[in-house]
Amino acid sequence: MLWLAFGFGSGLAPVAPGTFGTLPGVVLAALLGLLAPAIGVPLWAVVLLALIVLTPIGIGLCGAASRRLGVHDHGGIVFDEIVGVLIPFLLVPVTPWTLLLAFLWFRLFDVVKPWPIRWLDRHVSGGWGIMVDDLLAGVFALAAVGLSVHFWPG
Fold this sequence. Notes:
This protein has about 150 residues and is mainly α. It has helices at about 1-5, 15-40, 45-70, 80-85, 95-110, 115-125, 125-150. α5 (about 95-110) crosses α7 (about 125-150) and α6 (about 115-125) runs antiparallel to α7 (about 125-150). It is globular, with a radius of gyration of 15 Å.
């Protein structure tokens, strides 16, 4: 269970575990970008399904890992980053450029935590509290990636 919560070990990075923990999410986004056309389904629908499945799993997994470690939102728990970075792909196609943009914008919003992300991070507890700030960072990243692609198509 901890192995999955720690992003297959990526959350064990000695520096910037959240940044390293976001990388499996970028890989997952790339795989979803390959899967969608292969099965003839729009990317947004595949990403939405992934979010619907992974979010409740993440709430349970992150909450259980937090309880086991005795620390709310331990830095190594990165399943929330893996899920949050998928959100921009509800709007944009998967390309090397959008993967980079999603990674950078998501990390910026996850680190800086503009309102209301910071408020949620401080006031919501348990597995939901661990997940919600990253889901909202993903929504912020969705808007930023959409605007970036509009102004700099890459």
